[in-house]
Write a structure and sequence with these properties.
The protein is an alpha/beta fold. It contains nine helices and eleven strands. The longest helix is centred in the middle third of the chain and has 19 residues, at 185-203.
């Protein structure tokens, strides 16, 4: 009898200690064939979660939250980013090598919505427990978020009532999943995300969603060597008012150091980004933010920045009250 009670107690402990699997839609703005997204896909599945990928055919980095209403998606007019799907294939389909990896010939938001409105609805009978957008090839910090497809996916998911996390890796490593080796950085980045998801699971109240209502996370991973990432601390950050690559308009594109480095030395006008240390054109001012909690400063310190975001850009109550006082001749001040 004592042995039976011990065994029953052990089984109950094991059941209580194992977190339930999450239904996860994994997406990005770099394409369904990138090393980063495939490494995270495999790590999340190994952790026991039910995961599908729904991501664009091509790289849409910097395209923001562009959506294309009433645009039908026909056959591909060319091969996918790394050639896994060829011209003439359906515009929405699955990777020939993995039926749980879906591609969409559209914007990042289009691909993400396909994941939650079509795939999740058929697979789980409703929305997923979590949307993860990324890991992106390159950081998404502060003001740069408005031009990030990685981050836009999170905003659309939050506004649909689904907990969501944007993940970006500071290095601009661009690689196909077919090049993944045991030593690839993508595995270390994926392990950071799996650790974060496990912490969210462990810290939520019983029966509660993974994140509070209307809430998501923006996560930036520093450019530490892969073997150092496991020990990197997580820091609760704020978006901040500064970024490494601030978009700006150049009267001559070849006046931009970044454009020149990328071989875009055109005398015609265009949009580029200012990089750290670059001399700015006369009269142009870029905000700075000395707060050590600003995402850029957290990442540069070697820590993983975790910023809490909301679905809509509604101002804080203090800011609302300040504006109401300014407009008290038009709008009565709350008492």
């Amino acid at each position: 009898m004592p042995v039976t009670r011990i065994l029953c107690g052990l089984l109950l402990w094991l059941n209580a200690s194992v977190a339930p699997a999450l239904d996860i839609v994994l997406t990005n703005d770099d394409g369904f064939e990138t090393a980063n997204v495939r490494a995270l896909y495999q790590r999340l599945k190994a952790a026991g979660h039910d995961v599908i990928i729904s991501a664009p055919v091509h790289n849409h980095s910097g395209g923001g939250g562009r959506v294309e209403y009433q645009r039908t998606i026909g056959p591909l007019k060319g091969p996918s980013r790394y050639g896994g799907v060829q011209e003439g294939a359906p515009g929405v389909g699955t990777d020939p090598q993995d039926k749980d990896v879906y591609y969409v010939d559209g914007t990042p938001v289009t691909a993400m919505l396909h994941g939650i409105d079509v795939v999740a609805a058929k697979r789980w009978g409703g929305p997923p427990d979590l949307v993860i957008s990324g890991p992106n090839e390159g950081g998404n910090i502060g003001p740069a978020l408005v031009s990030s497809g990685t981050f836009a996916n999170v905003l659309y998911a939050i506004n649909r009532g689904i907990p969501a996390v944007a993940v970006s890796d500071e290095p601009w490593d661009k690689a196909s999943w077919k090049t993944l080796t045991p030593a690839a950085r993508a595995w270390a980045v994926a392990d950071v995300v799996v650790k974060l998801v496990a912490a969210l699971e462990a810290g939520r109240a019983a029966g509660a969603p993974l994140l509070p209502e209307d809430t998501g996370l923006n996560v930036n991973i520093p450019a530490l060597p892969p073997d150092k990432l496991a020990a990197a601390p997580f820091v609760m950050s704020r978006l901040g008012g500064v970024t490494d690559f601030t978009p700006m308009f150049f009267e001559r594109l070849d006046d931009s150091e970044l454009a020149r480095r990328l071989g875009q030395d055109s005398p015609l006008p265009g949009l580029s980004s200012a990089i750290p240390g670059e001399k700015l054109p006369r009269g142009v001012q870029i905000p700075s933010d000395a707060d050590p909690r600003a995402e850029l400063n957290v990442v540069h310190s070697g820590a993983i920045a975790v910023s809490v975001v909301q679905g809509l850009p509604e101002a804080r109550r203090a800011q609302q009250r300040a504006v109401r006082r300014q407009l008290q001749g038009l709008i009565p001040v709350d008492r």
